[in-house]
User: Which sequence fits this backbone?
């Protein structure tokens, strides 16, 4: 189990790198006014594509929000941060080979702080199973799109670095927003999986990845033959964005 967990942790880190690479490319190469739409749709797609591998954070602010609210272990969070920054750096190297890059601008500090709240609060709701798995990508992609349109910010420190905005609120504003809105969500979100999972999600949860060890939650233990069928099922922390 130890070797399996290590291998899948590395796979999760690689998934974060690849996902952040393409998310950053969407942000760098899509011209205004379609940038927000391209980024939101890209994130929504990767939530479904990478959600079972890494949780599909693709954003240091989201990772920080999940770590401070104890939805993600610190060691995994550090790995994700390194992978996200590496993916953004690769995007910065590749993007000029595809098309000339325009100058970029950051939103106001308040815009970056508040804008990331749309995303972090939605991700935490998804991680507490307030949103069915079937709708997680739509919810998270829409939250990012709403935050981008409302504030015209970047809302992702890794992408801010790829845009050359390292000395602006686009870098530190989303991190501050994660520290503000992450703990705020704990005031109304339960600490455990309190909301019943819909029947369609129960079926998927019982058949997909049942024996897979994820870096942020243990693998399901097989039920012994003499164990009562009426016993309470094992529950885990839900997958993230």
Assistant:
């Amino acid at each position: 189990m130890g070797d399996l967990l290590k291998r899948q942790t590395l796979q999760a880190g690689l998934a974060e790198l690849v996902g952040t690479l393409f998310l950053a490319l969407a942000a760098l190469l899509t011209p205004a006014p379609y940038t927000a739409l391209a980024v939101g749709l890209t994130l929504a797609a990767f939530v479904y594509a990478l959600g079972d591998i890494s949780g599909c954070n693709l954003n240091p602010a989201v990772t920080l929000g999940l770590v401070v609210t104890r939805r993600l272990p610190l060691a995994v969070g550090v790995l994700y941060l390194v992978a996200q920054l590496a993916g953004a750096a690769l995007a910065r190297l590749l993007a000029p080979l595809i098309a000339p890059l325009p100058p970029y601008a950051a939103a106001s500090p308040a815009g970056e702080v508040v804008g990331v709240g749309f995303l972090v609060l939605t991700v935490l709701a998804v991680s507490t199973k307030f949103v069915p798995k079937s709708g997680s990508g739509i919810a998270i992609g829409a939250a990012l799109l709403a935050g981008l349109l409302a504030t015209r910010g970047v809302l992702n420190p890794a992408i801010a670095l790829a845009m050359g905005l390292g000395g602006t609120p686009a870098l530190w504003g989303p991190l501050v927003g994660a520290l503000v809105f992450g703990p705020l969500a704990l005031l109304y979100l339960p600490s455990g999986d309190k909301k019943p999972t819909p029947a369609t999600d129960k079926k998927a949860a019982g058949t997909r990845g049942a024996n897979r060890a994820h870096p942020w939650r243990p693998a399901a233990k097989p039920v012994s033959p003499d164990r009562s069928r009426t016993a309470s099922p094992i529950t885990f922390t839900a997958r993230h964005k």
User: Anything to note?
Assistant: The two ends are 25 Å apart (CA to CA). Residues 193-241 have pLDDT under 50 and may be disordered. Residues 2-185 form a domain with the Glycerol uptake facilitator protein fold (CATH 1.20.1080.10). The chain has one domain: 2-185.
